[in-house]
Amino acid sequence: QVQLVESGGESVQAGGPLSVSCAASVSGRSFSEYDIAWFRQAPGKERDFVAAINWAGRTTKYAESVKGRVTISRDNAKNTGFLQMNSLKSEDAAVYYCAARSPHISDDYANDGTYPYWGQGTQVTVSS
């Protein structure tokens, strides 16, 4: 079982940076045995993939809309995942969700159906 708690969401100016975190509580296995991903959902829109990092931290995937502006990382010793966002745009405003899955489930890191564990989300607001 994995419990995920996101934090760090806040209101920021367009063009500014923001880092959000995902703290994991894991039972039965270790945090390092899970792939981690970030998704986001804006009001009235579907949940979209943002970024993912595999269990070892060696593979990262990014949505085209955030490539070059977002960096996903993890600290397995601290059971925490991170999403560093730069040059924020109004279209980045959303609730950001952290998700986890067992590794080697699928090469499709963007498929939210492959992630059984989800946090409650953290709100990111971007003002112009």
Which short descriptors sum up this protein?
128 residues, seven-stranded mixed β-sheet, four-stranded antiparallel β-sheet, 11 strands, 48% strand
Walkthrough of the structure:
By secondary structure, the protein is an all-beta fold. The chain has strands at residues 2-7, 11-13, 18-26, 35-41, 48-53, 60-62, 70-75, 80-85, 94-101, 117-118, 122-127. The strands form 2 sheets. Strands 2, 4, 5, 6, 9, 10 and 11 form a 7-stranded mixed sheet that branches. A hairpin with a 6-residue loop joins strand 4 (35-41) and strand 5 (48-53). The radius of gyration is 14 Å and the shape is globular. The mean pLDDT is 96.
Give the CA-CA distance, first to last residue.
Answer: 40 Å
Name the quaternary structure: single chain
Major β-sheet profile:
7 strands, mixed
Helix content: under 10%
Strand content: over 45%
Per DSSP, the total helix count is 0
Shape: globular
Q: Regions with pLDDT < 50 over 5+ consecutive residues? A: none
Number of strands: 11
| Overall pLDDT confidence | 96
Computed Rg: 14 Å
Task: Give a concise summary.
The chain is mainly β and 128 residues long.
